[in-house]
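Please, structure for the following, as C-alpha cells.
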Amino acid sequence: MSMVMAREGVRARGFVPRFGHKPNFSRAGEFMITGRGVLSCPGDHRRRTKTLAIDARQWPPRRASFLRARAGRMSPSPPAPVAPKVLTLLMIVRDGRVLLGLKKRGFGEGFLNGFGGKVEPGETVDEAALRELREEAGISALDATRRGVLTFVYDDQPRPMRVHVYHASAFEGTPTETDEMRPEWHAIDAVPFAKMWPDDEHWYPAFLAGNKFVGTFWFTNTTTIVAHDIEEVEDDAALERAATAPAPPAR
C-alpha cells in the first residue's frame, strides 16, 4: 500500500465532507481522518480494511511536517532507559593479600566477593561503601578510595546495576563473619576467580595494580557474560562521567 499524507477533513484523493456526513468512497486504498481521530481505509472491506489510531488534535501539522503512515504498521518507540541501581564494592588489600567474603545469602549467594551493597536514601556513595563494610565484615576502612565504576546489565533482572569499586589498605577492627558474609584472606597472586563472579578476572588486574577503570558487562541468565567493555582511565572526572552516564540496554 502506498505512503499517504493526511490532514483533518482531507483525504488522499478528493474532498471529504464535514464531520457528521457520511463519506462516500468508491476506491479501496483511500484514507481519511475521522472526527474521532481514526485513520481509516474504506473500500472493499472483505479484501482490505485497516485502521490506525492517531490524535486528530495534532492537525494541522506544523511547519509542513506531515504524518506519513502505512496502514497497519508503525515503528515502535524505543523503550525509555531504566535508571541503574547504585551499589558499592570495597576490598581491603594489604601485605600481599586481599580480603574477600563468601556471600551467604541474597544475590550472588555462594560467590566470593568484596563487601558492599545498595546505597540507601540520604547517604553518599562513599558513606554507603564504609557502612556496608562495617555491616558485612565488622571492620572500618580508614583510607578507602574509589578506583572504578562498573555497570552490569542483565537480561533477567529488572534494572541494571552500577557498582562503585573501592580500595582500602588500612582498617580498624577484626574481620568477623556476619549473617551476610564470611571474610577470607587470599594472596593477590592466587585470587580464586573460579569461585567469584565471572567479570572479576577482567577488572581485578587494574584494581590490584592501583589503576582507575570503568567498564560495562552484559550478562545472560545472571552469570554468563555475553559482552564486556573495560578500560583504564586517568582521573576521578572519568569515573564521575561513567557514574552518571545512562545505562545501556540488555543484549
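The radius of gyration is 29 Å. Confidence is low (pLDDT under 50) at residues 1-21, 23-42, 44-54, 63-67.
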